[in-house]
Design goal:
By secondary structure, this protein is mainly beta. The protein has two domains: 38 residues, no CATH class; 123 residues, OB fold (Dihydrolipoamide Acetyltransferase, E2P) (Beta Barrel), CATH 2.40.50. The protein is built from two helices and twelve strands. It has a five-stranded antiparallel β-sheet, with no helix packed on it. A five-stranded antiparallel β-sheet has the order 7-11-8-9-10, with no helix packed on it. The protein has a two-stranded antiparallel ribbon with strand order 1-2. A hairpin with a 2-residue loop joins β4 and β5. The chain is globular, with a radius of gyration of 20 Å.
Length: 181
Amino acid sequence: MTMADTIAVMHSGRVEQLGSPRELYERPVSRYVANFLGQSNCLDGTVVEVGGDTTVVDVHGVRLALPGRHGRPGSAQSFGVRPEKAVVLARTGGSPDPRLSNGLPGVVTDVSFTGLSIQYVVRTGWGQDLAVFAQNDGADAAASRGDAVLVAWRPEHAFALRADVPAPADEPASVLATASP
């Protein structure tokens, strides 16, 4: 990503997304691109409300804001958030940052110190694991294994994902024209 100003990510012989390294990383259009360039927490939910420049998505009973207008009420919507854009908060405490308005409850199942960061794995009530990477700023870990926490993030850090559709069968392109007499 450091050697090009435009990148094409290909999947099954077709271009999945074309753009700058930053665009591909910050706003991937599919799960494939989101996980090809790093790691992502991908979530599935149902659109509850579309208004202004925000879409509200219900994920297992929790309403989360997604930037932009996506789908319509009742439609399925996938989205993602990068592990380094999320934080682990104690469920009993309030957020130190009011912008962290999106959050999912879970239990810490793993804490790994990597030097550069502390990496958390948090299991949600429906069994999905979410990753959070906290920069090593010298402070103690925010949570320990077994702690009930909230994985929180700012709504603008989420990105909408289109439904992954299997690549079309290899068929020659053709144009069919008919004419009426």
